[in-house]
């Protein structure tokens, strides 16, 4: 049995915001869509998150994430230098450094951040004028298939991530837009259109 997902959510906020927040469950393809957006629009500024988890094979510090210690993360939170942060899957913390986002917005550039549900809620509290986009799988079975196919988590970790994913999918109505990632090219086109950028 598959969990049906809505394909649209009524827009209740203006689309003129320069900050776009992308969220969605594990293994839905957020990183793949972001990479395609960056390929098409190299000038699009995408925030690089900080995390306390170790790098996965092929990940580069400062490109995929800022990999930092728990102690350094504590310092950034305590000094108000995180726009949002969250403990993810009960193990590691992820956060969006505030200053680079504010600098890019002040310069009038479109800014794009990718966060989990907790992070999206914190950004909404701090910057309610932002545009919030939820990237959804075609159905829950497809999400399971993608996570298993990725092969980067243990069975226990997969179970934890899927439990979190169910909670995130239940919160889809909190977002301004829902984009179903059944095809990366089409999903990227839709996100770019929401931002007013050409789908080239």
Can you give keywords for this protein?
single chain; 200 residues; alpha/beta; Rossmann fold; 5-stranded parallel sheet; 4-stranded mixed sheet; 7 helices; globular; disordered N terminus; nucleotide-binding; kinase; GK/Ca_channel_bsu
Describe the model.
The protein is an alpha/beta fold and 200 residues long. It has a single domain, classed as Rossmann fold (3-Layer(aba) Sandwich), CATH 3.40.50.300. Helices cover 38% and strands 19% of the residues. It is built from 7 helices and 9 strands; from the N terminus they run βαβββαββαβαβααβα. It has a 5-stranded parallel sheet, sandwiched between helices. A 4-stranded mixed sheet has the order 4-3-6-5. A hairpin with a 3-residue loop joins strand 5 and strand 6. The longest helix has 16 residues. It is globular, with a radius of gyration of 16 Å.
